[in-house]
Design brief:
11 strands, elongated, single chain, alpha/beta, Alpha-Beta Plaits, 39% helix, four-stranded antiparallel beta sheet, seven-stranded mixed beta sheet
């Protein structure tokens, strides 16, 4: 966790449903100089004396109480940032599109196992994507529409978060190692400003098992965030970047605020913020 060596910090605790009593209980452990309730489901413990031992106590207690705990230096506001960049699969949406497409082909198990290993950082992403897409060869392109209509769901808090971001005058970028078929539809539906993803080759209404052009891997995700920031005339430090998999780490690494959402352990460890219980709108309590 960055900045953790300073002595006094703020800690934001947040949860779902009726979490007020749990929040107050965990907050008391920090011996704060002040507690500010942000909402009924989030509070800020201000001026706590930070130590690794306290941090561990809080993390264990918060996780047991199903609360997210985020340490922050000072108080940040949404207006400090100009861009929110998001991964798509398992971040903005709840599914891995490629796994669901594969399910239409009777190959979900094989493909999902490769996806999971790639997200944990155990496999080279471009090679793993090519392997997975090759397994889809011959599948009717109508399967993509079925996945979009029947299976694709936004993550909890996505629309609330996006509304607040728009309200604050920020731009949005959806950058995905997934597919343009889905990013384009989400761009229109959610009024996103920028999208970038892989394009599946379709010939005569069927998937060829190939991707058109270069693959959007970790490096390309980082370049995309840098490119959009340059276009907007801002620094990457003015971007919030959200992701869940190992291929998101490079773009998260250049962000002013990196958010691990329901993420793999390797990603949670390296992010400024890990949201394991609350929705994507959990960033709003941190920036208020």
């Amino acid at each position: 966790m960055k900045n953790a060596h300073h002595t006094t910090m703020n800690l934001v605790l947040q949860g779902l449903d009726d979490s007020k009593a749990r929040l107050a209980r965990i907050a008391a452990l920090t011996a704060p100089s002040r507690i500010t309730w942000i909402t009924d489901q989030a509070l800020r413990c201000e001026g706590i004396t930070f130590s690794p031992a306290l941090r561990q106590t809080i993390e264990v207690a918060a996780a047991a109480a199903q609360l997210d705990a985020t340490y922050m230096m000072g108080v940040h506001e949404l207006s400090d940032f100009k861009l929110v960049a998001m991964d798509m699969d398992s971040t903005l949406i709840t599914i891995e599109c490629i796994d669901e497409i594969a399910d239409m082909h009777g190959l979900k198990k094989e493909v999902a196992a490769i996806t999971e290993a790639a997200m944990r950082g155990e496999l080279d992403f471009p090679a793993s994507l090519k392997r997975r897409v090759a397994l889809l060869k011959g599948l009717d392109a109508a399967a993509l529409e079925r996945v979009y209509v029947e299976r694709l769901r936004l993550s909890p808090g996505a629309e609330k978060m996006l509304a607040a971001v728009r309200e604050a005058g920020m731009k949005t970028l959806l950058v995905s190692g997934g597919f343009t078929f889905f990013t384009e539809r989400l761009k229109e539906r959610l009024h996103l400003d920028y999208t970038h993803a892989n394009e599946l080759e379709i010939v005569d209404g069927k998937l060829t098992g190939e991707v058109i052009g270069d693959i959007v891997d970790a490096d390309e995700k980082q370049r995309t965030v840098e490119r959009v920031c340059a276009e907007m005339g801002i620094l990457p430090a003015q971007a919030i970047v959200m992701g869940d998999g190992a291929n998101d780490l490079k773009m998260m690494g250049i962000a002013g605020l990196s958010v691990a959402f329901r993420a793999k352990p390797v990603v949670r460890e390296q992010a400024n913020v890990a949201l394991n219980f609350v929705g994507l709108d959990g960033i709003l309590a941190l920036l208020s």
